[in-house]
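[Primary structure, fold]
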Amino acid sequence: MFYILLRSFFVAFFFAVSGCAFPSFPPLMPAVKDLSSLPPGKTIIFGKIELIPPLSKGAQRIKGSRLQAYENKAALLTSSSTLVKANEDYRYRLSLSSSANQFFMLKEPVYDRYDKMIEIMFGETFYVMAEDKPFYVVASEVYMNDARWFGRVFLPSGYKVDIKSGDEAVYVGTIRYYRNEFMDIVSVDVVDEYEAEKAAIMVKFGNKIRVRKALVSAKSK
């Protein structure tokens, strides 16, 4: 914990002396509140992302900043194509079987190459609206402090969300990231909680909603 706070102090100091603003994010995929807000050609994707063990209180130094809304959240960056020009300096294209700690970044991130961003609260089921066609999660980030270049932890990504035309709701699974005390991601699992999540979405949106399971794939180390 001390090491994480020390690193956070370093990057916050760097940001303070640099005087740089944080870059703009891609448009958000909106959360879905009810089926009346789901127009034709759109699909609900739902599932969960977990970080094991969870972030401790105060681990993220973003209170009072423009990133405060990302406390205990992952930010997923998406593209409609696997040909997105990912910056290899960040190793954005990580398979779910990878392990990586990329807390220190030496170049400014570029977000305009991505189509959308999805905000996901760790440990809670998300319901977001997407086009009824496949897309790819090419990067996932956790913001540890309000710095322009530093202060981000990358979660291994590089997976397809397999939406088909006409899908009303697609369950993608629970992506479970295991970390050590230095925020290194040491392994990843995709857990199938379909029956419980199907029951929950029918309570939330009604039992006539058409649900399909399309788990993202991962191999744990």
DSSP finds two helices and ten strands in the chain. The chain has a mean pLDDT of 79. The chain has one domain: 2-213. The beta strands are 42-52, 73-79, 116-121, 126-131, 135-143, 152-155, 159-161, 169-179, 185-191, 211-213.
